[in-house]
Prior knowledge:
The protein is an alpha/beta fold.
Amino acid sequence: MSERCGLVAIVGRANVGKSTLLNAILGQKLSITSRKPQTTRYQILGVHTAADTQFVFVDTPGWQRSPRNQLNRLMNRQVNQALRDVDCIVMLCDARGWTADDELVSRMVAQTGLPALLVLNKHDMLKRKAQLLPEIERLAASETHFAEFLPLCARTGNGVERLLEALGARMPERPHMFPSDQITDRSERFLAGEIVREKTMRYLGDELPYRTSVVIDDFTDEERLTRIIATVWVERDSQKPIVIGKSGELMKKIASDARRDLEQLLGRKVFLTVWVKTKRGWTDSTEALQAIGLGD
Ligand SMILES: Nc1nc2c(ncn2[C@@H]2O[C@H](COP(=O)(O)OP(=O)(O)OP(=O)(O)O)[C@@H](O)[C@H]2O)c(=O)[nH]1
Ligand SMILES: [Mg+2]
């Protein structure tokens, strides 16, 4: 049989579990996740090869209805780009209910005219499982451009096999784009920056994560370990002590959690140094956004 290979965009509003789903499919943590919205900033490819079929998933930032700064506009632009370049779309919503933002994303999906599936994620959170069927029926009647409606729990991976079956049938006959053991297009250096950013998302309060960014200043493989130097950028000097914490406690937690994940990812010992520096107004600075790989 000839090979199949297709690009699949994973889209949806913020926080519905897109990155968690990608990680569940790959059986490995690739894309960072958090309980806060707008965790994903960069489009990232996750490659899953099963026998003759290769799925190239594109994880995207959550769609934002009213982007407040250039960073947010660039994140939306990545969603638009992903929707243009793929063979098939997987849209995620929360099984607990359809929102106005879901409706907006759904319309964008319809406009592409591409084959699309709707995943009702977090079905473990439903108080009564009996709620699911009427919700699927209601959506199937109104959102008719979706070929299938699939309940799923990205956190446990329950339903992932069914999703892959549904997608497999829709992958075009085409040679594989990546070797079968490759899982992403991104470098270890990029992934290292994302892991540090994930920890800042997790440990900082509700507002500050959106004011911070991470740059890897050095990534050197040495004989026995990998030496990594990262800088967390904040927008104002007054934010620095918050990231560092009392006697550096918070920074220590961020760095030691990040190091643990990095050692797992790289399969090597890691020596990680994290600095905090101020870069004024970086969320609206074209130059600063380019420096972290956003914008052209
Ligand atoms: N209970 C439950 N929680 C889930 C499930 N899938 C994801 N989550 C949680 O939902 C939160 C958001 O998950 P993410 O994967 O970061 O969501 P996302 O859609 O990628 O979010 P953005 O990148 O911010 O758009 C995290 O706390 C996940 O652990 C699920 O199936 N069940
Ligand atoms: Mg995400």
